[in-house]
Specification:
By secondary structure, the protein is an alpha/beta fold. It contains 9 helices and 12 strands. The structure holds adenosine-5'-diphosphate. Pfam families: ABC_tran (PF00005).
Length: 274
């Protein structure tokens, strides 16, 4: 199957049909500080079940921090984050913020897949093992079933012939395809995409973007994407959030944000990147 060919049922990502079964995301008055540096200032936003939302905005404005908070790689200082009905933390009786217990967080993380800028493949494992390791050890899937699904996903991302290859033998674009397949192998409900093409050679960018666009269009996933590629943001999103200095400046459908932005900060940003 050609890269980016339509997803078939059983390929690891659920088909879009009717209302999404995926959880939505809620940020309510979320504060995140690194020392004196207030990165998120009482940030409020939601992503509806099955919605595809892209965060755009200047470097250092806190976009990646939002994804890392969802992956529980960082902890908030105040406010609430929910994925579906599940809070990632709560206030105790004294008003102190307490993270959800580790077992709960582990269950949450299983619902969320993330694709990183730097691929982050397991370098000492071949491509297929990269795809089966999580399902076998975290989800408890049998090795045979994981391998079977892994091969289907490799087929989906156009790398059926690379199952035995090692990550170092692949181009950046191929490594990122493996990383996408690895995220899908965990059958996530929510997919987080963090600058997934910014480490790629220019000629490899479009192929990876097309693949992700097809996955986004044909799956049931809730997607939160951070990108500097405005064409990709336009393609993949139902809604775009323009973000600056820890807060949302403006939001709307891509046609509006890119076509008729109402805020000067959005216009300045778009002029600088387009
Ligand atoms: P963006 O993704 O919009 O470029 P980031 O979320 O990466 O922005 O960073 C937002 C701010 O938080 C920056 O000022 C950055 O220096 C700071 N920051 C991010 N991660 C850390 C960290 N682990 N420790 C200290 N400061 C951090």
């Amino acid at each position: 199957k050609a890269p980016g060919a339509p997803l078939a049922k059983g390929d690891g990502a659920p088909l879009k049909k009717g209302p999404s079964q995926a959880p939505g995301i809620l940020f309510e008055k979320v504060v995140k500080r690194f020392g004196q540096n207030v990165v998120l200032r009482e940030l409020d936003f939601t992503v509806a079940p099955g919605e595809r939302v892209t965060l755009i905005g200047p470097s250092g404005s806190g976009k990646t921090t939002i994804l890392r908070l969802l992956m529980t790689l960082e902890k908030i200082n105040d406010g609430v984050i929910r994925v579906g009905d599940e809070p990632l933390s709560h206030m105790d009786r004294g008003g102190k913020l307490v993270p959800a217990n580790e077992k709960h967080l582990h269950e949450m993380r299983k619902k969320i897949g993330m694709v990183f800028q730097q691929f982050n493949l397991f370098p000492n494992m071949n491509v297929l093992r990269n795809l089966t390791e999580g399902p076998v050890h975290v989800l408890g899937v049998s090795k045979e079933e994981a391998a079977d699904r892994g091969r289907k996903l490799l087929d989906l991302v156009g790398l059926a012939d690379k199952a035995e290859a090692h990550p170092t033998q692949l181009s950046g674009g191929q490594q990122q395809r493996v990383a996408i397949a690895r995220a899908l192998a965990m059958e996530p409900k929510v997919l987080l995409l963090d600058e997934v093409t910014s480490a790629l050679d220019p000629e490899l960018v479009v192929g990876v973007q097309d693949l992700l666009r097809d996955i986004a269009m044909e799956s049931d996933l809730t997607i939160l994407c951070v990108t500097h590629e405005m064409g990709f943001a336009k393609d993949i999103s139902d809604r775009v959030l323009m973000f600056d200095q820890g807060q949302i400046v403006e939001e709307g459908p891509p046609e509006q944000i890119f076509g008729e932005p109402s805020e000067q900060r959005t216009r300045d940003f778009l002029q600088a990147v387009l």
